[in-house]
Protein 1
Amino acid sequence: MRSVGVEEELLLVDAESGEPLALSTAVLAMAHRHAEGECAFESELHRQQVEFATRPRTDMDELADEIIRRRVEAAGHAANAGAAVVALATSPLPVSPTVGTGERYQWLEQQFGLTAQEQLTCGCHVHVSVESDEEGVAVLDRVRPWLSVLLALSANSPFWQGQDSGYNSYRSRVWGRWPSAGPVDVFGSAGRYHEQIQALLDTEVLRDRGMIYFDARLSHHYPTIEVRVADVCLDPLGTVLLATLIRGLVETAAGEWRAGEPPAPFPTTLLRMAAWRASRSGLDDRLLHPLTMHPEPAETVARALLAHVRGALEESGDLKAAEDGLGSLLSAGNGACVQRDLMQRTGSLRAVVTECVRRTRG
């Protein structure tokens, strides 16, 4: 059974006003003070956010328990520092982000200007174990068309600087300003992958391998592939569904590689169209179907993803949970749908944030 680990980025906000607060230093100090062993929490580019990472898990119920526990811990540490945490991929309320004081963060701000300064976004990164770089790159080549569907499912950032952006995932549009972000070409082999990574580093535009911001990449720390395309999910069970589907995608792609099936030859330009469509529409309209790159209803495309990984989910025992989770998501809507519904009912972005603070714990 492949192991799965999740990294979630959370916003720090004022519990009453919903405005982001630059309190990550204080929150992380609380987290380190109460940690038993290695601390699960880390800083991020901006002081208005924190990140946590789960342990590698093979059981999805255990992963769900840990995600909820970490969110509750984050809320407790934030409360002790005078803040709250919320799983929103962008701040609905206006904010002037504060870049962290670390050397790396200061370098990013200096090199990339407004791209770094305005990059207060929260994503969800899912790691799935692979047996080798060769298997990992084979998986990367074969999951390319499906990544936009994951973005649509997770979309949770309709508001930007106090306005409705018109997108379900405006985070992905902001994130796409980085020069190394987005979908990539088929690599064909681990050797070719590493050659291209080195070619990017040789440009000296990127500081290090940590700035390889592909939608999915080989991790430079762990024997995993890391799928980075998703918004942080408002509902922790949405994160578990995402992780379940991604593990299914990895197992399915690895099986295709072992069977000698080539990756779909879609050019990166088409994948960019699919990613834009997913960020714009989420689950509200049409998406580009990963098997044809033609527009079809979002629910049809989402269920095509489930059908694509059905065999892997049956083998891991996750099929029923994935069917139920996807059904609930399609019925209730993604985080963007929830936020817009709250805004329509309350007329207040502050109320949107404070309600989402409550929902972040699940």
Protein 2
Amino acid sequence: MAVKKLDETTYEVSAVREGEEFKHLKEHVLVHFKDAKVDGFRPGHVPANVIEKKFKKEIDGEILNHIISDEYQKAVAENELKPIADIKLEKYEIQADKAEVVFTIPVLPAFELGQYKGLEVEKENFEVTDEKVNEEIEGMRKNASKLKEVPENEEAKNDDVVNINFEGFVDGVAFDGGKAEGYDLTLGSHSFIDTFEDQIVGHKKNDEFDVNVKFPEAYHAENLKGKPALFKVKVNSIKRKEEAELNDDLAKELGFDSVDDMRAKTRENITKREEARVENEFKNKIIEKVVDGTNVEAPRALVDREIEFQINRFAQQLQMQGINLSQYFQMTGQTIDKMREDSREMAEKSVKTELVLSEISKVENITVTDEEVDNEFEVMATMYGMDKESMLNEVKKSGNYQRFADEAKYRLVNKKTIDLLVKETKVR
């Protein structure tokens, strides 16, 4: 076995089995196939050469697994590696009397922490002015506006919400992802390609018409790039915002006693929100300074995992709006590869931050008690609208309790680590 360090996050393992060693390994594997069923032979009486020919792929796979398992364990133990993901098979060759394997192991990088105590970081001072309060109240007034369906003889205009059915055609043929019914579209939002929304402006309820657009040259679907398309569109309804008036009735509708009460409580809410924002930004500045001061490489395996996590989270958010990723790509011209590329920088930063905070928690011996974890469970149960026992029972039923508990411990240790950094930082 030969182990080579390729970089701070990757080790390469090369192994060869040949001669008698290979022969014994192969015989060991063949034992598991001795009772294999082969037409024309009784179980247990199939000649070895017949088994080797019929089950060559499976036998080679078993030999590979044995070699990798042995060499992986040795490499990890002898080099004190900390693997973070599955190995990557780089080479596998098997001959009559020899097998050669090369694989890489992604590992946690070794690194030295930069300065994380005695830093000086600027903290924002803020003031809640009457202007900010009035701006917030104006926002609530506008948000209280209700969408009201306009009369059938009125035409759609920008900012209206039109409910439409549509189906797209290229060269007279309908294409995948180009059809929907009962879709709410805000005109002027530029959610759809080209001048799609502009061509709906001026139409009325129950109008059926054609919309002609052109797909972008950089569109992700090869069969649609730069192609002109025709959409058959029907307007089911047109809704327009009806602005609310600021008075005691509106204040009560929004949960206040009066407009004066609305102003007082809005000031309180802004103050709490701004205090939380300033504190959060202060913490982020500290963390960023600590991470920037530490020379650590983000393992590609962890970065790729973080990218997929971010994309899955975005997909879930879209799903809550009734849109899937495929539809999103059709509407925006985005691609999954471009999305991954755009997410990489943020993912690398996130991974580096996680590595640095984890190392600080180890150096500072930061731990959590069972009582603290139990309290965290109480908080999570409240967040889910459940009692703690019911929540934990559901988690145990799904077989995810250990991971659930580990994640809770990780969050608490992370919070304590950040609190330590804040305590050790001088406010500038």
Protein 3
Amino acid sequence: MFTGYSGPKGFSSGAFRAYNRTQEMNHGDLFYTIDNDPYLFYDLDNLSLIKPSGNVVFHINDKEARNNSGSFKAILEVYSEANKHY
């Protein structure tokens, strides 16, 4: 309730950046990592560019995410070169 609500793109106003895990994205932004390289942060605009193998792990750009409430729903479709399902 302190910050209000945001969508998966976080707070575009630049608010609360001191609490960010990464400064390259908005506070509260939904982003992901690949479990075999958890230090590279990807924004949702690049979700279709995943090439490496591994699990996609979603995060909120907030150092103190445990004090938040709410959720996002993500639907992922997996395409591979083998089945050419584009």
